[in-house]
């Protein structure tokens, strides 16, 4: 099926998807006292794996037909990615986590130009990447007030999670995994991360001390069904139907929604330095996703 420009319906769907992606940090942070973050991400991966397995069963497809080595690397990187992000969320504000974590597309663009070399080097993109990393620095040192506290350690962990996200994409683009359907690749990320994240919950700080509450159940359901399953499947479906550049250009919505949800639902107040850093990251993301006329995909 030939790629099509985004329609009004597709734009609305993508706004909802990126709103879900941005809200995930707030969902984790809101119940971090009820369940340890590592336990949350373990149950998220376990539930997402089960739902995807049922989806493949319904489709009568075998998701295990993939190169073993790269697939194992995906599982490891996915576990590290969300392990660092979720632990970082316990130490920093949801707004900081959302903004810093979504610096990953900058690193992906940098790796595509200088490591994988499957994209041409463009000065405008490089400038956008540098601009965004300046924003990360400003955000990390801005502090936080109101209902949220931010620490440099927590921000750093979220940034390491973003690095693992970027490394995951590099593995996919540099190996035979690039020829597989995106849902299959997602399945291997989730499936491979389950045993690693399960082991991580056994450490003293990981813990299985749980205070079950309606908020915790709602948060886990949202993280698992809304993001790890439906969110990613819909996002990949949009990528298969519409121009990649047009879909990717809306990435900036995720950190923006992340900040909005953190402020509205958690009462996190941010200072001027944070907003300046957030604006730099969003501006850099827009510059990275910019395409010249005549190059829509």
TrEMBL record:
Which superkingdom is the protein from?
Bacteria
Q: What are the GO cellular component annotations?
A: membrane
For the EamA domain, which residue ranges apply? Answer: 11-139, 153-289
Q: Which UniProt keywords apply?
A: Membrane, Transmembrane, Transmembrane helix
Q: Where in the cell is it found?
A: Membrane
For this protein, the parts annotated as crossing the membrane are 40-57, 69-89, 95-115, 127-146, 152-172, 184-203, 215-235, 247-266, 272-288
Q: Does the keyword Disulfide bond apply?
A: no
Annotated protein name in UniProt: DMT family transporter
UniProt organism field: Alloalcanivorax marinus
């Amino acid at each position: 099926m030939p790629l099509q420009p985004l329609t009004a319906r597709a734009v609305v769907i993508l706004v909802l998807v990126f709103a879900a992606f941005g809200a995930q940090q707030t969902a984790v942070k809101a119940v971090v006292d009820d369940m340890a973050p590592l336990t949350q991400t373990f149950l998220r991966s376990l539930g997402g794996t089960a739902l995807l397995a049922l989806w493949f069963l319904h489709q009568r497809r075998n998701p295990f037909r993939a190169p073993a080595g790269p697939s194992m690397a995906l599982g490891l990187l996915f576990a590290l990615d969300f392990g660092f992000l979720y632990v970082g969320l316990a130490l920093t504000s949801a707004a900081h986590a959302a903004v810093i974590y979504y610096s990953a597309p900058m690193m992906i663009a940098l790796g595509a130009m200088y490591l994988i070399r499957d994209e041409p080097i463009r000065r405008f993109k490089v400038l956008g990447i540098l601009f965004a990393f300046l924003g990360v620095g400003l955000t990390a040192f801005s502090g936080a007030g109101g209902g949220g506290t931010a620490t440099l350690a927590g921000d750093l962990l979220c940034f390491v999670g973003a690095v693992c996200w970027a490394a995951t994409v590099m593995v996919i683009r540099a190996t035979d995994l690039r020829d597989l359907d995106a849902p299959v690749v997602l399945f291997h990320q989730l499936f491979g991360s389950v045993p690693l994240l399960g082991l991580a919950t056994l450490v003293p700080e990981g813990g299985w001390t749980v205070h079950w509450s309606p908020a915790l159940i709602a948060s886990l359901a949202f993280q698992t069904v809304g993001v790890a399953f439906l969110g990613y499947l819909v996002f990949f479906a949009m990528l298969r139907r519409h121009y990649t550049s047009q879909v990717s250009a809306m990435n900036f919505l995720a950190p923006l929604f992340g900040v909005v949800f953190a402020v509205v639902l958690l009462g996190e107040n941010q200072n001027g330095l944070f907003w300046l850093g957030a604006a730099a990251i969003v501006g850099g993301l827009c510059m990275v996703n910019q395409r010249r006329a005549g190059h829509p995909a």
